[in-house]
């Protein structure tokens, strides 16, 4: 099976000379379709940097990221944004919803960029929001929703455009324990039902318990990997 | 539609700032409308007056007369010519004139004057000659009971020669046939003031001028009016078409006949643009500040938008769209304010602190112009300028690197 994302000798440095910090160093990874992968490690280990590079939000200083066998570094700004739009869904730690758009509009936005007809957009948005447990809250603005509900909208936004992979950067970090658990269950269910690929950066043990694959990272290097049949 | 909603809600995020920015654009728009209205209105008044009083909207003369006016270049001044001329669609009035120089004598003094022979009846329906009479009356076309033709003289002529109403005036010049022209006239009217364009002019009835300059049945040119001075080019083209079978004659618009006046007016109009540039500059500074602040405040959000797949060009146009929306709404509200103000300005106008005299006619009121262009041009200027000024912040937003931008969130 061809990997959705592959990194080859990936490196990212900050600063220079004596102050050079290797945030990532020679990282080789392959993410297969349908995986529920967690990248785990202590704070500052390079988890978020790896996720940002995998999603094309940042440029590596060394090595290559291949998205569906295409190197990110070879893509123009326009190509890259189109690629992210069509193939990658992002879930951020701070939700990052557009504050002036309602829950439904936040989800609809990406499909608008994809040129999907209005009727289909609406149907998919309402179905997805129902799936994440937000039926009846479609027209609420982000500030009218709780943190957990906002993160559910973020999940719906990431999934509604049917990307090949969802990259989630510490998605439960700002949520209370129960809400985080519920959200995780929901994403796990979506992964099992729809075969959608998830990659998390996390140090949340609950995510680690459910992950089908754990990638341990420390000081910018992959130091170990565990695979499980069912997370 | 979602993008428009997004743009609209974005401009409503900081309502106070939006209102202040809109007020600056609205104020700029209203100021531009009123300034343009007054400028156009005043130039319209001056050009309308000048062309009616002096040059007409077009003139018909012998080929070369406009470049070098001589006594010997003449056009027919017959009734048949007049009938044909006034039957043309654009022609609303026409009158023949003779124009040359002479030496005028009063009781004891002499003074070089410009002699203008006009058809008393036709001229009264075309120019402001009758309205410019300060003393006395309009002359008769035929000689008086003593056999003298009546004349009206400019204020400078009357002052230099120390002549008054009822006095005699002697003119000496050269006839078109080479003879010595001299005759005695009776002064029945004093024209304008010493500042007037025709202060040094002596007006003669056309028949008197034809006799004096030995030009029977002829004139030097025909002054022709259309409905409006703006039709002068169209009128000139029509006259030249009509004159196609008379190659010795040609028509020229007032812009050619009085090229110096036309160029002066054009230069004056362009000079007025400086005021507009200042207004636009001030509006643009305010808008630039607002849009830049708005972009800086939303840097993180733009990072997210880019991260989830918004292309740089779409982000660029989102900023431009927000600015255009702001400018469009400002102009719309500005229009609501400018409509009644300009209506009053165009219909009633305002009294000038110092009445302005042009060629003996006093203009005490300044009126605006009620024209679609007066409302549309400033809107296009405001919208175009702020759209241009928004390019820089829009480019800044479009070039945002998602991961850097989102660090601030």
TrEMBL record, chain A:
<dbReference type="InterPro" id="IPR003439">
    <property type="entry name" value="ABC_transporter-like_ATP-bd"/>
</dbReference>
<dbReference type="GO" id="GO:1902495">
    <property type="term" value="C:transmembrane transporter complex"/>
</dbReference>
<keyword id="KW-0547">Nucleotide-binding</keyword>
<keyword id="KW-0813">Transport</keyword>
<dbReference type="InterPro" id="IPR017911">
    <property type="entry name" value="MacB-like_ATP-bd"/>
</dbReference>
<keyword id="KW-0067">ATP-binding</keyword>
<dbReference type="GO" id="GO:0005886">
    <property type="term" value="C:plasma membrane"/>
</dbReference>
<dbReference type="InterPro" id="IPR027417">
    <property type="entry name" value="P-loop_NTPase"/>
</dbReference>
<dbReference type="InterPro" id="IPR015854">
    <property type="entry name" value="ABC_transpr_LolD-like"/>
</dbReference>
<dbReference type="Pfam" id="PF00005">
    <property type="entry name" value="ABC_tran"/>
</dbReference>
<dbReference type="GO" id="GO:0022857">
    <property type="term" value="F:transmembrane transporter activity"/>
</dbReference>
<comment type="similarity">
    <text>Belongs to the ABC transporter superfamily. Macrolide exporter (TC 3.A.1.122) family.</text>
</comment>
<protein>
    <submittedName>
        <fullName>Putative ABC transport system ATP-binding protein</fullName>
    </submittedName>
</protein>
<dbReference type="GO" id="GO:0016887">
    <property type="term" value="F:ATP hydrolysis activity"/>
</dbReference>
<feature type="domain" description="ABC transporter">
    <location>
        <begin position="5"/>
        <end position="230"/>
    </location>
</feature>
<dbReference type="InterPro" id="IPR003593">
    <property type="entry name" value="AAA+_ATPase"/>
</dbReference>
<dbReference type="InterPro" id="IPR017871">
    <property type="entry name" value="ABC_transporter-like_CS"/>
</dbReference>
<dbReference type="GO" id="GO:0005524">
    <property type="term" value="F:ATP binding"/>
</dbReference>
UniProtKB/TrEMBL annotation, chain B:
<dbReference type="InterPro" id="IPR003838">
    <property type="entry name" value="ABC3_permease_C"/>
</dbReference>
<feature type="domain" description="MacB-like periplasmic core">
    <location>
        <begin position="18"/>
        <end position="241"/>
    </location>
</feature>
<feature type="domain" description="ABC3 transporter permease C-terminal">
    <location>
        <begin position="274"/>
        <end position="400"/>
    </location>
</feature>
<dbReference type="GO" id="GO:0098797">
    <property type="term" value="C:plasma membrane protein complex"/>
</dbReference>
<keyword id="KW-1133">Transmembrane helix</keyword>
<feature type="transmembrane region" description="Helical">
    <location>
        <begin position="372"/>
        <end position="392"/>
    </location>
</feature>
<feature type="transmembrane region" description="Helical">
    <location>
        <begin position="274"/>
        <end position="295"/>
    </location>
</feature>
<keyword id="KW-0812">Transmembrane</keyword>
<protein>
    <submittedName>
        <fullName>ABC-type lipoprotein release transport system permease subunit</fullName>
    </submittedName>
</protein>
<comment type="similarity">
    <text>Belongs to the ABC-4 integral membrane protein family. LolC/E subfamily.</text>
</comment>
<dbReference type="Pfam" id="PF02687">
    <property type="entry name" value="FtsX"/>
</dbReference>
<feature type="transmembrane region" description="Helical">
    <location>
        <begin position="315"/>
        <end position="339"/>
    </location>
</feature>
<dbReference type="InterPro" id="IPR025857">
    <property type="entry name" value="MacB_PCD"/>
</dbReference>
<keyword id="KW-0472">Membrane</keyword>
<keyword id="KW-1003">Cell membrane</keyword>
<dbReference type="Pfam" id="PF12704">
    <property type="entry name" value="MacB_PCD"/>
</dbReference>
<dbReference type="GO" id="GO:0044874">
    <property type="term" value="P:lipoprotein localization to outer membrane"/>
</dbReference>
<dbReference type="InterPro" id="IPR051447">
    <property type="entry name" value="Lipoprotein-release_system"/>
</dbReference>
<keyword id="KW-0449">Lipoprotein</keyword>
């Amino acid at each position: 099976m061809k990997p959705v994302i592959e990194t080859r000798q990936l490196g990212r440095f900050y600063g220079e000379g004596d102050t050079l910090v290797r945030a990532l160093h020679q990282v080789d990874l392959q993410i297969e379709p349908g995986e529920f992968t967690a990248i785990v490690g202590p704070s500052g280990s390079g988890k978020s940097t790896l996720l940002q590079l995998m999603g094309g939000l940042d440029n590596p200083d060394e090595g290559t990221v291949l998205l569906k066998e295409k190197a990110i570094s070879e893509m123009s700004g326009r190509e890259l944004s189109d690629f992210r739009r069509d193939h990658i869904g992002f879930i951020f730690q701070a939700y990052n919803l557009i504050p002036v758009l309602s829950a439904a509009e936040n989800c609809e936005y990406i499909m608008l960029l994809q040129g999907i007809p209005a009727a289909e957009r609406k149907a998919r948005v309402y179905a997805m929001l129902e799936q994440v447990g937000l039926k009846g809250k479609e027209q609420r603005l982000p500030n009218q929703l709780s943190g957990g509900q906002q993160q559910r909208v973020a999940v719906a936004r990431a999934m509604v455009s049917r990307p090949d992979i969802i990259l989630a950067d510490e998605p439960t970090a700002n949520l209370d324990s129960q809400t985080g658990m519920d959200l995780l269950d929901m994403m796990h269910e979506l992964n099992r039902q729809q075969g959608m690929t998830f990659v998390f950066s996390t140090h949340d043990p609950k995510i680690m318990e459910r992950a089908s694959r754990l990638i341990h990272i420390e000081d910018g290097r992959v130091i170990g990997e565990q695979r499980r049949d069912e997370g | 539609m979602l993008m428009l909603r997004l743009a609209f809600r974005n401009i409503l995020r900081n309502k106070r700032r939006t209102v202040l920015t809109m007020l600056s654009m609205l104020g700029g728009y209203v100021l531009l409308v009123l300034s343009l209205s007054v400028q156009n209105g005043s130039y319209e008044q001056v050009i309308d007056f000048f062309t009616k009083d002096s040059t007409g909207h077009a003139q018909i003369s012998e080929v070369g007369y406009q470049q070098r006016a001589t006594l010997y270049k003449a056009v027919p001044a017959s009734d048949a010519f007049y009938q044909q001329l006034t039957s043309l669609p654009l022609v609303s009035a026409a009158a023949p004139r003779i124009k040359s120089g002479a030496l005028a004598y009063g009781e004891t003094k002499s003074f070089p004057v410009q002699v203008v022979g006009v058809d008393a009846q036709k001229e009264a329906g075309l120019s402001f000659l009758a309205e410019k009479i300060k003393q006395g009356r309009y002359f008769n076309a035929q000689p008086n009971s003593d056999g003298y033709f009546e004349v009206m003289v400019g204020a400078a002529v009357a002052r230099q020669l120390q002549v008054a109403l009822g006095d005699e005036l002697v003119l000496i010049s050269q006839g078109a046939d080479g003879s010595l022209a001299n005759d005695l006239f009776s002064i029945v009217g004093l024209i304008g003031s010493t500042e007037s364009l025709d202060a040094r002019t002596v007006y003669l009835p056309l028949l008197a001028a034809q006799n004096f300059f030995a030009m029977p049945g002829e004139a030097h040119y025909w002054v022709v009016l259309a409905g409006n001075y703006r039709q002068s080019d169209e009128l000139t083209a029509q006259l030249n078409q009509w004159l196609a079978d008379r190659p010795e004659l040609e028509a020229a618009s007032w812009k050619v006949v009085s090229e110096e006046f036309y160029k002066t007016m054009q230069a004056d109009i362009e000079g007025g643009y400086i005021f507009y540039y200042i207004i636009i500059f001030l509006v643009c500074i305010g808008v630039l500040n607002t849009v830049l602040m708005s972009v800086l405040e939303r840097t993180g959000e733009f990072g997210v938008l880019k991260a989830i797949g918004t292309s740089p060009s779409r982000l660029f146009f989102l900023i431009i769209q927000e600015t255009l929306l702001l400018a469009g709404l400002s102009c719309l509200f500005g229009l609501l304010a400018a409509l009644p103000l300009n209506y009053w300005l165009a219909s009633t106008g305002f009294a000038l602190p110092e009445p302005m005299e042009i060629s003996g006619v006093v203009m005490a009121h300044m009126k605006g112009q009620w024209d679609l262009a007066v409302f549309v041009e400033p809107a296009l200027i405001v919208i175009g300028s702020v759209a241009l000024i928004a390019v820089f912040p829009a480019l800044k937003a479009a070039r945002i690197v998602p991961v850097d931008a989102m660090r601030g969130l």
